[in-house]
Design brief:
Blueprint (H helix, E strand, L loop, with lengths): L23 E3 L5 H11 L11 E3 L39 H4 L11 H7 L2 E4 L2 E4 L6 E6 L2 E6 L1 H12 L3 H6 L27 H23 L20 E5 L3 E5 L2 E13 L6 E9 L5 E11 L5 E8 L3 E10 L2 E11 L8 E10 L5 E9 L2 E13 L2
Antiparallel strand pairs: 1-2, 3-4, 5-6, 7-9, 7-17, 8-9, 8-17, 9-10, 10-11, 11-12, 12-13, 13-14, 14-15, 15-16, 16-17
Amino acid sequence: MVISCAAVNCTNRQGKVDKTEVSFHRFPIKNASRLAKWKRAVRRENWMPNKYSFLCSQHFTPDSFLPGCEDQHRQLKAGAVPSIFDFSPVDKGTRGSLRKKMLSAQEPEDEEEEAYKRPTQSHRGQSKPLSQQTVGEWSLDGEQEVFKPSSCDLIDALHSYSSTSRQERGRCRHWGSPGREACAKPGERAPLTARPTGPRYRAVTQRRHRAVLQIRRFRRRLGLPTEAPVNPAIAPLDWLLGSWESDEPGEGSFPTIAPFRYTETLHFSQVGQPVINFMFNAYHAESKKPLHRECGFIRIQPGTNRVAFIIAQNSGLVEIEEGELAGQLLSLQSQALARTSFAKEPHVQQISRLFQLRADGKLEQTVSMMTGDQPLTQHLHITYRRSS
């Protein structure tokens, strides 16, 4: 990187000047009040210094440097502010690199007011105060003031950086995205759910998804595994892995409710750990309205056929079911139940569940339930076919 002086009408560049006479000094980006003084002294129009901006030593008085430091090793005092500049009009024949340093029309009326505007960020040539773009606060870090952006801006920045190309990042160097909807207003608490939206983000997501699919196809051609190998601890249950969907609507009934029909999808997955992750989603057979959801984990006691289901239901019920695995037949019985304090009565007291992989490759599930006023009774029965 070529270091050059950012001052108006100054053409000093590292390598083009005598380093024993001219040294270069970075703008104090992390010190807000001092940065405002430097920016006010430079008087450049529509320009914001960054970590690559420098001023040469010719713009400082001799007493601005620490004693004992000479040549290119000069060091500025903590409160040094540039004060020597040439703001005379630029000749028409001046080189383009010099003409780009436009002089501000007038100096800010109040130095303190300028300091509170804080550094600005530009987007497509338009400059806005940082307070209009970034939510956060200024705090003291030792003897320096440091700006700490909010969680919203930090998350947006990470999403924006990872979801854009190098060329796009070069055109838009700022916190978050210009059209961000989730960012809070100044003075309000920023949400933690910020994420990029819009056609560009969707296009990037689609390209990433296609790339993943291409890599998987390529690995299959080479005979390489496309997913993490199954942990030996859960190998007896590998017949469950994958996605399943109801072959036909299942039947639901219980003495205290009217019979109903439903469809359901099951998804069992693993990531190489001795545990299976699962998600069950049930829908009304006619209206397709979401009904019941369950998610959790499956574990096997090492060296045995003892299986445990850890289940959380969207109804507010959490349970642990344990049972025995016999080939491709898994029978489970609830061992512990917990529910929210405002759960509706009658409360569920016991649940039993049966999974069986039939000879035709279809998966069958039967669920029985007992409440405070009803004995253990079959509640659900459904058959699934493997979808992936």
